[in-house]
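To fix ideas, we close by showing one paired sequence and structure record:
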Amino acid sequence: MNKIRLIIWREFITRVRKPSFLIMTILGPLLIAGAVMAMAWVGMQEATDYKVLVVDQEGLISRRLEDNKALRLTFFLDGTVWTDSAFKESPYNIQVRLLEGSITENPRADLIYKNKPSEFAKQWIRAELEKSLEISKLQKEGIDREAYARVRKPLDLKLYDVKDLGKESMADAKAMIGFFFGYFMFIFIFMYGVQVMRGVMEEKQSRIVEVLISSVRPFQLMMGKIVGVAMVGFTQFMLWIGITALMLVIGLAVLASSKFDPSVLAEGGMTTQVQEQLIAAQAQTAAAPVDADKVEEFIAQVNVPLVLAVFAFFFVGGYLLYASLLAAIGSAVDSETDTQQFMFPVTIPMIVAIFIAQLAVVNSESPAVFWGSMIPLTAPIVMMVRVVMGTVPMWQLLLSMALLVLTFIGSVWLAGRIYRTGILMYGKKVSWKELGRWLLYKG
């Protein structure tokens, strides 16, 4: 045990002192925060001017279509047919042709564009045309529009769990939080599991391992490396979270203040009225209180201690399971190119787990979700969604944990047997058949 502890410390201190660790610790938050701020900056930029020509030969549109200043979208209505060449020469960049029978049969319109409209603009055009056609239908059927508006009210459908009546269910929000936990595990396991594999290959290529093996057993060396890399990963993640949060707070504050500064708005050619509206909207958003009741209700519906305990268990268990397999792969090959044939069976379960976790968000009772949360190779990611949603019986959770522990013990045993032979094997292309023989070697 003392030797494993020494190997863990050596692995940790060696990697932390590397320039690449320092560079990635600083570069990682810069990239993350930079990408977020870049998206925020792009989102604040002015959109294209959409001049939408609506061709309505049957005169179905009887009201003024509502323009959208935020989207810089303006409607123009015409009842004559426009040829494609005439449209190309026109100042309009979008043409919507209402087809015959739009009011009585299947409503349909063709949208022809010079510059592809954004999804927001397309949805606004669709909504305005649907509203106008609906009014035309009401007039044709002799139905009073105001009476119809009173009758036609959207259904406010709320979810309640029979086990917790009286409180609105937040299953969707809980599913998203569970998926976030699972996705975080996926990134960590993959990123640092591959680091374990590369570390083993580097020591094998440099022959340092021959010196180490003379003092410790191969299994101790493998476990020390796996745990040491995990500690480096935890340290780097904690630094990333702190630095990224700090940079985002400062960056977004600077971006927002410059965007809504009156002098900057005036330079943009905006009128005083528009400037006041934007500044008022920003102030309203900043002053809007967080719905503390919703937050408290959400926390009350989630068993936080259980979620954190399960997360820690599956996080550690999943990492150790995959890292041991990847360490075995690293010991069996001489170069990264040779890892491809062995990486495929290891990475496929992780990708499948992400797909099943996404399925669990929309259908947590699916049989695929159940089996995905039971099979040890996918359970660390899928089970988190079920646990946060509170849909997993205790016996299933305990069974999944037990299966993960048993599989981890088995995989470490298998990986250890491959590792002890492969780590000293040089200049030989290893096949699956060869790996099978290594498992049966004695000694």
User: Anything to note?
Assistant: The two ends are 21 Å apart (CA to CA). The first helix runs from residue 2 to 16. The beta strands are 50-55, 73-78, 94-98, 109-113.
